[in-house]
Design a protein that fits this description.
The protein has helices at about 5-10, 35-55, 60-75, 85-120, 130-135, 140-150, 150-160, 165-175, 180-200. It has about 200 residues and is mostly helical.
Length: about 200
């Protein structure tokens, strides 16, 4: 199911009936956020969640679609009210997990597409230059492939840091001390470099 920003806003609008399925085509639970509370969360975090997902996927439309899924998850199942929660941290973790899952799916699909493209080229049924297709965005594709193969916590840490989160914000997301972030980042960067070199040779 594709959950866009427009569908999400329609689902939580005051005029939308809270029935099993509303006009947006989305199932709505009875145990949901108060509208104002959810709107504040959405306004505070949506732009940055999209930015993180765009950095990961390289596709604006896909980033917005995945961001919609992230917010729909927390809207349908609010965090327990009797506990303290880092809502932003939860959103970032879910967003990066969804983004990495999307990357893995894309990698599988691309493998089949490249195989089909190679067969078409060998049979002379395409006018495209396969070399140009392969070289296009190769560096970004390699980086994303390595991130998708890493442990989720490490890839999430690198992505969120590259997306502009401070050490303090990262500490809040991962529930650790700020003083630990430098060490965790160093380990994640070393793991990334090791995997990249193993797959592609020297970093460029």
């Amino acid at each position: 199911m594709v959950v866009t920003e427009e569908k999400l806003r329609e689902a939580i609008a005051p005029t939308a009936p809270f029935s099993p399925t509303n006009e947006a085509g989305l199932d709505v639970c009875s145990d949901t956020w108060a509208e104002a509370e959810f709107e504040q969360i959405f306004q505070t975090h949506y732009g940055r969640i999209v930015a993180v997902l765009f950095r990961l996927t390289g596709n604006r439309a896909q980033a917005e679609e995945l961001a919609g899924e992230v917010f729909w998850k927390i809207y349908r199942q609010p965090l327990p009210a009797d506990q303290d929660h880092n809502v932003g941290g939860w959103l970032y973790r879910v967003a990066t997990r969804l983004g990495i899952d999307a990357l893995r799916a894309q990698a599988r699909r691309k493998h089949y597409e490249q195989a089909a493209g190679a067969a078409a080229y060998e049979s002379g049924t395409t006018n495209n230059d396969p070399l140009a297709d392969v070289l296009r965005d190769e560096k970004r594709q390699r980086v994303r492939a390595v991130l998708a193969a890493m442990k989720p916590a490490q890839s999430q840490l690198l992505l969120l840091r590259q997306s502009g989160l401070s050490y303090q914000e990262l500490a809040e997301v991962f529930g650790v001390k700020t003083s630990s972030i430098g060490t965790l980042l160093a380990r994640a960067e070393a793991e990334f470099e090791k995997r990249f070199r193993a797959l592609y040779g020297a970093l460029q």
